[in-house]
Every structure is written in C-alpha cells, then in structure tokens.
Amino acid sequence: MLSDDQIRSLLSKFKESDSYKKWHEHRIERYKSNSEWINPDSIKKLTDDELRQRFLEYYKGGEGRQTFNQIYRDRIVRDISLFRKMLLHLLNEEIPIEQRFRDVVDARGDHHIDGVGKGLASAFLMDFNMDKYCLWNNRTENGLNVLGWKVYDWGDDAGTKYVKVLSALKKLRDDIAPELKLTFDDVDFFLHFISAEEEGIRLVQDLTEEKEIIIPSPREEWIQEIIEENFDEIIGNKLGLELYEEDPESSGSQYQTSVGRIDFLTKDKKTGDFVVIELKCGKATDSALAQVLRYMGWVKENLAEEKNVRGLILAEGIDDRLKYAIKFVSNVEVLTYKVLLQIARTEAEKTGERS
Questions:
Q1: One Pfam family, short name please (predicted)?
Q2: Could you write out the three-class secondary structure of 6-48?
C-alpha cells in the first residue's frame, strides 16, 4: 500500500503532468455543459425527444471519462418515461444516496433499467453535483488497486459500495493534498493516470524502489483473483485486451460454458476478436492446449459469429510436450508470468539514513 506521503507526491506530479494540462479544461467544459440538463428542474422540462437526444449524445462519447457499451444505448431510453423517472429518483437528494444508487444499479432495484450500471449512474451523479458525488467505474477500481486500497467488501450491495468509494475519493480530494484543490473529476482522472497512462505508471514505478524476490505461486485461485482485480495493468494494457461483458454487471472472469469454465474470456480492443485465456499455476503441459482449444471451439460456435477466436495459455513455465505441441497451432500463444515479493524501505527510513 502506498503511504499518504507517496500519494501526495503522485497527486502533485499529476497536476503538473502533460496529461492534466491537456485534458483538464476540456473535462471542466463538458461538466458545465452536462450539468445544464442533468438536474431535476431541467429533466422535468425537457420533452421526451429532447431528453432522449441529450442522453444519446452523452452516452456516445462517455464524456472522455469512460467507454459505454453501445449495445445498451437505445435500450436504456426505449421507454423514455421510465428513464426520466429513474433519473429523477437518482438525483432526489431527499432520499439517502445509498438507497438511490442501489435502486438504480442493482438488477432487482425498483428503478433499474437494463444497461445502467455503476459507471453511468455515478456519471449522472457527478455531472449533477461534482462537489458531492464522484465517478465510479473500472478505471476507478484500477487506480485504487495501484494505491493498494481495499475500499469495500465484495458482498456489499451497490449502494454500500458507492458510499465507501465516495468516502475513499473524498480522502484523496480533501485530506491527503488539500492544497491542490482537486475536484472529483480531477481525482477520477488521477486514478486513470496512475493505472493506465504511461507517464503515471512510470511515476508510480519510480516512487516505489524495490527489491524483487521471485516466489512460487501459492495457488491458482489466488493468481486468478489478483489478475481479475488488476486486469488492465497486468494483461489488458500490455496485450490490448479487455474482459468480455455480456451486461454491465458481469465480466469474462471465470466465464461458465457447457464444456467447462474459462479462466478469462476477453476481446481484442481493436478487432473485437475473442481471446480465451487459460491460467495455470506452475508448468503448463499439452493438456492445457487441449483445454484452451475446447473453449475456443465453444466460443466460436456460441458467441463469436463472424469474429475470430484466439487462445492464450498463461503459466509460470511450460514443459517440453507443450513446447512441441504449440509449434503447429498458430492461433494459440503461450506466455509466462512470475510472482514477486516486493521489499521496500519506508520514506521515514530513507530520511533517517540520510540524517
């Protein structure tokens, strides 16, 4: 976990970064424009066609903060009266935010619309009032993972999770570096910066000097969980992949099929092709190849349609049988990983050494 001093240093460098200077004004302008219609008074006055058009424009670009699944765009406003009621409920501050968020985001919530997940609901809230509400999406999760912050329990409902995320981001905004006068939009950009921007990733690496000790993986389930929680940093950004999503509330991790459970079902960000990832603890054998080919066949027949399907075996090592078998399979790749135990001095110890 990064210390508050380390995070303060990162926040200061972020505000001086080229990325911040390039995008800050644009994001503020979009917030001002969005807040003109994302408020109860305007929502009540807009005609059905005006409200639908405002939403479609808003959803298409994600306002430069996030990418929405366009499959759900028209479905969300299919019944414009339900959409209007959902928005008004979400922005009704006479109701506790935990309840409002749960009612809208949970699949069984009273005001839930298929396609509205935590990213869209929290975007509406932040564009309604940036002083009170933050954005919460996968980029937020990735940034919090970089900081080493475990914000909520997986068993919490959506409303409870959002309140805990809001509290964590308030700490970043108000407590750690109040002199920077950050907004919730700045904090959202910061979390993306340190987890996905090359400049930010490098700053984190430079800040955490470390001694690396290679250790064997304790168990496959543990590796699976680590990769799932940090997918973009470990796999996605390096290989251009993203987890497959059937709906806003599910991912391609531990994807269940009739022929077994796929460790990670992903898609190529550029081509849209499916990539089946099979994870192995220790050395992988040729049985892993048979397994991934079986999953690839199922994906091609049931999901891929005209898209291609590739395979990836991710293991600590590979034995000779797999090395020979893979030579004649062009659409399956084998990559290796290692688990590191990182030892680093604290900032206080470094200061003590120099005194």
A1: NucS_C
A2: HHHHHHHHHHCCHHHHHHHHHHHHHHHHHHCCCCHHHHHHCCH
Backbone angles phi, psi at 205, to 5 degrees: -65, -40
In a domain, 63, yes or no: yes
15 with 118, same domain: the answer is: yes
The DSSP-derived string for 91-120 is T-TTS-HHHHHHHHHSTT-TT--TT--HHH
Q: What is the pLDDT of residues 86-113, one digit of tens each?
A: 999 999 999 999 999 999 999 999 999 9
* Same domain, yes or no: 28 and 144: yes
Provide the token pair at 108. 């069984």
For residues 254 and 191, membership in a common domain is answered with no
**Strand 332-336 relative to strand 309-318, pairing:** parallel
The last residue of a domain, from among 200, 230, 253: 200
So what's the pLDDT on residue 249?
Answer: 57
Identify residue 29 by its one-letter amino acid code. Answer: E
Query: Contact, 248 vs 70, CB < 8 A?
Result: no
| Interatomic CA distance for residues 103 and 112, integer angstroms | 6
| Total structural domains within the chain | 2
Tell whether the torsion through CA atoms of 144, 146, 150 and 152 is positive or negative.
positive
Pair 45, 111 in one domain: yes
Question: What does the DSSP assignment read for 190-230?
Answer: HHHHHHH-HHHHHHHHHHS--EEEEE--S-HHHHHHHHHHT
Amino acid letter, residue 264: F
Q: How confident is the model at residue 223 (pLDDT cuts 50, 70, 90)?
A: confident
Residues 15 and 128 in one domain: yes
